[in-house]
Amino acid sequence: xxxxxxxxxxxxxxxxxxxxxxxxxxxxxxxxxxxxxxxxxxxxxxxxxxxxxxxxxxxxxxxxxxxxxxxxxxxxxxxxxxxxxxxxxxxxxxxxxxxxxxxxxxxxxxxxxxxxxxxxxxxxxxxxxxxxxxxxxxxxxxxxxxxxxxxxxxxxxxxxxxxxxxxxxxxxxxxxxxxxxxxxxxxxxxxxxxxxxxxxxxxxxxxxxxxxxxxxxxxxxxx
Amino acid sequence: xxxxxxxxxxxxxxxxxxxxxxxxxxxxxxxxxxxxxxxxxxxxxxxxxxxxxxxxxxxxxxxxxxxxxxxxxxxxxxxxxxxxxxxxxxxxxxxxxxxxxxxxxxxxxxxxxxxxxxxxxxxxxxxxxxxxxxxxxxxxxxxxxxxxxxxxxxxxxxxxxxxxxxxxxxxxxxxxxxxxxxxxxxxxxxxxxxxxxxxxxxxxxxxxxxxxxxxxxxxxxxxxxxxxxxxxxxxxxxxxxxxxxxxx
Lengths: 223, 248
Known about the structure:
The structure holds two protein chains of two kinds.
Chain A: H1 8-38, H2 40-52, H3 54-84, H4 101-104, H5 106-134, H6 144-151, H7 155-182, H8 190-222
Chain B: E1 3-9, E2 18-24, H1 33-46, E3 69-70, E4 73-74, E5 96-100, E6 109-111, E7 114-115, H2 118-125, H3 148-158, H4 165-169, H5 176-187, H6 190-193, H7 196-210, H8 220-224, H9 232-247
Parallel strand pairs in B: 1-5
Antiparallel strand pairs in B: 1-2, 3-4, 3-5, 6-7
Helix pairs in contact in B: 2-7, 3-5, 5-7, 5-9, 7-9
């Protein structure tokens, strides 16, 4: 068995698998976050579980970080290779007549999502690591909801988050269905895959926007 | 029809090319695009100017040699045709038409609109065939039962004429549609299954070595392909390659 990343198709399959893995993570992230709108106790309980469970923290979290890094590093490598495959550009190139903007500009939507991830890590992940492993503060299962509310008080930050979710939606609109094609999905499934892709790519980012806006409005109304 | 043609002129592979503007008059809407270029070339030769070099052979959409990028699209502004099947009625009087060679690092310009597509030949040589001694001792192909759906799909894949429109139109200059058509036409038939593992590995390896870009499933190749080769073939080739890698 000679599975290596040397072949363009194997690289494509690896990109698809890492993308699908990140989509699974995104789904569970959304499910946990949406509970903050309905019940802060459930949100606190789930966040505490995710933040303190050994398997999640020391097995799944490193896999997730590897998945994110692999996906964007491979994305940049493939983009560089693709740009190098044409040395002279066309004087006139009407690519909008045969392909969608989102499919041609995955690198742009990807860079925006990556920048958002950096901000998100700065906002949530780094303080969490600092709290638990650097300052070694005592576990407080009730701290997650107030921290979330505090982060979404700033309207500028919420706007940045919402714009990023629009780009996440664009990235998913092509990437989700495309990953199934890369994995060799038969055309008889394409209609269902495309339909599910459209629903997921709009619903999930819109849901994240709703969560951010909800907490912005609630925090400003109650204070 | 009166037209302004902006055509890529390049003396040879090593020289720097540029767009040169020509005006042409009295073009019939019923002319094919290549006939229009023939008229232009006659005018240029009468003026003592080097005629525009372009590939052509069958002029009926079979040979795949008349490859040009016209107004930003491979084979021009129509679907499922080659340039020789494009008619001037697709343009309007007074139009400006940009005519460029197919562009990819793997398709270097030889002269003007003529590009070197021998990269495709090398991919084909890497495995796009069946190694059977056909000197009178083979079984009649018609005696091998083949499911109709597979026979139809294999035939559809085999209609690829290797024109290179997929590479030219893909933003990544990927040759996946071409290679997948060649892999699929054999993978779907019992005659091709014997060498299927080596074929897909060797053809994809050669494709990568030539320096074509990676497929990102934009679907532009399928739209611009004169023979409507489906993206399903790329999905099939992906499956074939992963299967082959596990076997090897």
